[in-house]
Amino acid sequence: MRTYRLIILLVFVSLASFAQKKFPYIKSGGGMFEVPEAEPIVDPKMKYKVLYEISKGADKPDSVNSTLDKLARLVNLHLSAGIPKQNLDVVAVIHFLGTPLILSDEAYKKKFGVPNPNTALINELAANGVKLYICGQSLYMRKLEKEPRNPAIRVTLSAMVLMTTLQSKGYVPIIP
To answer: Which InterPro entries match (predicted)?
Structure first.
């Protein structure tokens, strides 16, 4: 009976190792699975213009914002699919309940009691070419305009103006 249990355990462990999440480009988040049977559909010569909306807050103040993590997955998936980094233009607009993720570690800790769990992911996304904007309307509505924020995040007049402008320029909106 012990041998049987051991064999079952080994089978589960070996199967689990095949389905491990990978973090190929953005290491701080955005885990993805390799899908060897997937048919290639990307055009590596095409310019991919993505407008990504982050309007949801984190489940808990000490956890990474899941929508921000999905943004990292979007980058990992596109680059893993064969799109050259120079052909992937991603702009993320943060607003509404997502607004607090823009705070510096110190400001976040003052407000929530823990350092900002999003900092490493924000910095890595920015270092990989993702442009991040905070809606100025949300910033002022939530009275965070004077709070120190992550320097990788720029301010725009409003999420709505940024979104309509970029969609008019051919950016594809992703609203997770």
So the answer is: DsrEFH-like (IPR027396), Sulphur_relay_DsrE/F-like (IPR003787)
pTM score: 0.88
SS (H, E, C) 90-134: EEEEECHHHHHHHECHHHHHHHHCCCCCCHHHHHHHHHCCCEEEE
Residue 20 parent element (H or E): none
Reference 174, options 70, 42, 100, 77; nearest CA is 70
**CA 88 to CA 86: how far, in whole Å?**
6
**Nearest to 34, CA basis, from 81, 75, 83:** 81
Task: Provide the CB-side half-sphere exposure for 137 (13 A, CA).
Answer: 10
Helix or strand holding residue 162 (H, E)? helix 159-168
What is the C-alpha to C-alpha distance for residues 110 and 141, in angstroms, rounded to an integer? 19
Report the Cα 158 to chain-centroid distance in Å: 20
Domains and CATH numbers, the chain: 46-174 (3.40.1260.10)
* Kind plus residue range of the DSSP H or E element containing 19: none
Percent residues over pLDDT 70 in the chain: 90
